[in-house]
Amino acid sequence: MNHPEYRIEGDGYAAVVLGLGAAVRELTYEGRPLVVGFGPDEDMPNFRGAFVAPWPNRIADGRYTFDGVDHELAINEPERVTALHGLVFDIPWTLVEHTASSVTLGCTIEPSAAYPFTVALHARFGVGPDGFRTEVTALNTGSNRAPYGVCPHPYLVAGTSALDDWVLELPASTVLTVTADRLLPVGREDVDGTPFDFRSAHALGDVQIDHAFTGIQRDAAGFATVRLMDPADGTGTAMTWDESCPWVQIHTADLPKKPESTRLGLAVEPMTCPPEAFNSGEDLVVLEPGQTHRTGWTISAL
């Protein structure tokens, strides 16, 4: 089944957003790719450009307890036995508005045994002088309070050099360590003295990262920025977000079973909560009936 896609452009930026999953299939600045995209007839590979809600990352065994009630989600990452990246990345979204430089899509998470809550989502994607901006609104339209989290899943591209040569600036002092086999949270660790300390920008090299970070340094206005540069090309890509996302997942896209797709870009995913938040409750957004949550992020060319 073919799904609609929507092109927007302005101020040198151009993007294509899919009606399926509100995925960002393509993002360029003056023709230069800012993310790893995929073709119009290709299924979304490796969650490239996915819209992730109502939880980011993984829930172990697909099981969680909320307000004293146990729930069980479908396992969609069988090799690690987890429920991965929410419920809306592979469902149709409805067009709300489309202009030359913006598109707004909406969908409603309907109640089910696995997630018995009703959450209406709106995502506005727009381009302008500051870059490619996504603004997300979640409204609890049900009668019960609902657990909620959200993040994007872009693989940023700095330039034409190999990812190992790109220079990363990640203003985060704390990393969430994970199990080697299932990538489930173990505990917080100071990045000082670890391979995950990119507070001072330096080349990625051969480090492998698939971790959530917090303790994020922000500017006076409360914004955090991750910068990724290709020294050979003199180009780069940045991602900026506000305090509504106290976490960011970084992934060097190491895919040994898919060598053609490995380390093509760096996933940078500002998150409202860490992995397993449905069970830990850490930074979990709890939407009361009628309550709205807003967040957003911007990708820009350097």
UniProtKB/TrEMBL annotation:
GO BP terms, alphabetized: galactose catabolic process via UDP-galactose, Leloir pathway; glucose metabolic process
Gene3D superfamilies xrefs: 2.70.98.10
Protein name: Aldose 1-epimerase family protein
Native source organism of the sequence: Arthrobacter bussei
Organism ancestry: Bacteria, Bacillati, Actinomycetota, Actinomycetes, Micrococcales
GO terms for MF: aldose 1-epimerase activity; carbohydrate binding
Domain of life: Bacteria
